[in-house]
């Protein structure tokens, strides 16, 4: 069973389009994250949700909007895609205070052309 | 703010020992974690240090000195499958280091 699953795994799209990446975790965790990893492998946090509430919102363009319908899901919607948005986006989850471990999804490889 | 510094790349032969260092700056400290990431894969948890000292998990060990804001990951008896990037991360999960690429050669 996949603990943290995200779809799609690969996405190629044109500049200006709007796209979404979905994430679900079946671990019963209360906190979920979105990370962006660029071509230099720098892993940077974008958002963090705890029990559906936004708790971390790093300096990310307004074109990126996370949505958490319940604590098992955290989706990422991106408007007006730009070339610089090309990266791997990782969803992750953990149980705050109960675990030292973040569990990552397999990543979504976004290429904007 | 928070930041972590790691050197970028190291090449070593099978059976060797590699130490990956991490220095950090943070206003609140809750521990240092280490993650492994193979090319094309997701980061996976390796080790955590909340207190000073050495934590051993099989061939991998991690060390922390809070007074020096410094930690390291020690990879022993290197195997080809250990070729990957290794990240240190502040336990509050906000900040990861830039990662250290380890290449193991025969």
Describe the model.
With 113 residues, chain A is mostly beta strands. Chain A contains no helices and eleven strands. Chain A has strands at 4-7, 10-13, 19-25, 31-37, 43-50, 53-57, 64-70, 73-78, 87-94, 103-104, 108-112. In chain A, the strands form two sheets. In chain A, strands 2, 4, 5, 6, 9, 10 and 11 form a seven-stranded mixed beta sheet that branches. In chain A, a hairpin with an 8-residue loop joins β9 and β10. Chain A is globular and about 40 Å long. The mean pLDDT of chain A is 91. With 106 residues, chain B is mainly beta. Chain B has strands at residues 3-5, 9-13, 18-25, 32-37, 44-49, 53-57, 60-65, 70-75, 84-90, 100-105. In chain B, a hairpin with a 6-residue loop joins β4 (32-37) and β5. Chain B starts with a strand and ends with a strand. The model of chain B has no long low-confidence stretch (mean pLDDT 89). The interface between A and B is medium-sized, with 20 and 22 residues.
């Amino acid at each position: 069973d996949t603990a943290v699953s995200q779809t799609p795994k690969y996405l190629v799209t044109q500049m200006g389009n709007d796209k979404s990446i979905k994430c679900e975790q079946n671990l019963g965790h209360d906190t979920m994250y979105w990370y962006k990893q660029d071509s230099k492998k720098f892993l940077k946090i974008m958002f963090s949700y705890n029990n559906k509430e936004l708790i971390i919102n790093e300096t990310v363009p307004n074109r990126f909007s996370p949505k958490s319908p319940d604590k098992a899901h955290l989706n990422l919607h991106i408007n007006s895609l730009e070339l610089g948005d090309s990266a791997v986006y990782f969803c992750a989850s953990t149980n705050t205070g109960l675990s030292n471990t973040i569990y990552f999804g397999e990543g979504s490889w976004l290429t904007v052309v | 703010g928070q930041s972590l510094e790691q050197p970028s790349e190291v090449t070593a032969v099978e059976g060797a020992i590699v130490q990956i260092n991490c220095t950090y700056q943070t206003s609140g400290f809750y521990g240092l974690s280490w993650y492994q990431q193979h090319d094309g894969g997701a980061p996976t948890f390796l080790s955590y240090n909340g207190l000073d000292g050495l934590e051993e998990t099989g061939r991998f060990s991690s060390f922390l000195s809070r007074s020096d804001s410094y930690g390291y990951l020690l990879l022993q008896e290197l195997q080809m499958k250990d070729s990957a990037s290794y990240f240190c991360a502040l336990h509050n999960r906000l900040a990861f280091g830039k990662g250290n690429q380890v290449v193991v050669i025969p």
